[in-house]
Amino acid sequence: LFPGVRQAQWLTKTKLVEGLPPAVQGILDSPAHGLQELEERAKHAVSHARLWDTAEVAPRREQYCPVLFENLIHICRLMSGRYPSLSKRMLARDCRIAATWERESILLQVRGLSGILMNSMTPIPPVASKEEILATKEHVLETFYPIAPTIDLQEVNVYKELNDTGQCFGDGYPYSHPHTLFFLESANVRTNRFRPEQLRAKMLMFAFGNALAKAKELHGNDPKVLEQPVVVQSIGTDGQLFQFMVFQLNTTDLVSNDGIKNLVWIDSDQNLYEKAQCVPEVKKGVVTKPAGISGFQPDTFKKFLALYLHGTV
């Protein structure tokens, strides 16, 4: 998506709110959850991924980015001792999503690999109140005139309008509610990775696609304002910089610009650490920069953990 999130907002009929929603911020701000107790583990997780996991002098992004993700997820799972319902989650990889909708007179479809998808036995409760949802009626979606809002989208012949929450799930799958999508931009060559703005647009489109497919599975294909909105989260990272997103599908009536809009909260460009010095820098026999992680940002890790806990605490 060339214009990034602004284009994704139009395509999904969504209003953007900067920052994290109060439900997630409340988890961050509450000392009762003990997030600070895991800060040191998170710092070790970064060191393990960047410094200790390989014999190479400097590990490649395609190696350390997935390792860092696995390390952070492992730390999150430690919270299941305090919150047993966290055990009712499942990570699914290489699942395909398909969702189809009409926007103005254009038939649109998001389809493809859905990143790493964490599913839950229970849905995330709505994060916006009914009053906040009603207030979206007044929001005016940005247009791109004279540029078409579908610029740079791939045009294909659609023979079947699919709405599928995941081809790797069968009937009766107990972890049937999408919770959080994880996108790892781990390509070592920068030009092969999504830029942060394009990554956020991708995150929004796939969070919307998962929410729309789930809503149609639950409520049918007729366009409507949902009595129970569907919430899907998304986290994207290149192994250092993190993007956090919470999407709430309020309506499947997407043809017109009028009426209720969907909502997305985005917390952008959060560094987990500033630099990883893989080997010490030595000048004239003196170590000027020792090996190690500098500028570790515990708040970024806490946001990752808070989104993991969201819907449970």
TrEMBL record:
Cell location: Mitochondrion
Organism superkingdom: Eukaryota
Keywords: Mitochondrion, Ribonucleoprotein, Ribosomal protein, Transit peptide
Pfam families cross-referenced by the UniProt entry: PDCD9
Coiled-coil zones: none
InterPro entries in the record: mtLSU_mL37 (IPR052482), Ribosomal_mL37/mL65 (IPR010793)
BP-aspect Gene Ontology terms: translation
Family: Belongs to the mitochondrion-specific ribosomal protein mL37 family.
Protein name per the record: Large ribosomal subunit protein mL37
Species per Swiss-Prot/TrEMBL record: Erpornis zantholeuca
Source lineage: Eukaryota, Metazoa, Chordata, Craniata, Vertebrata
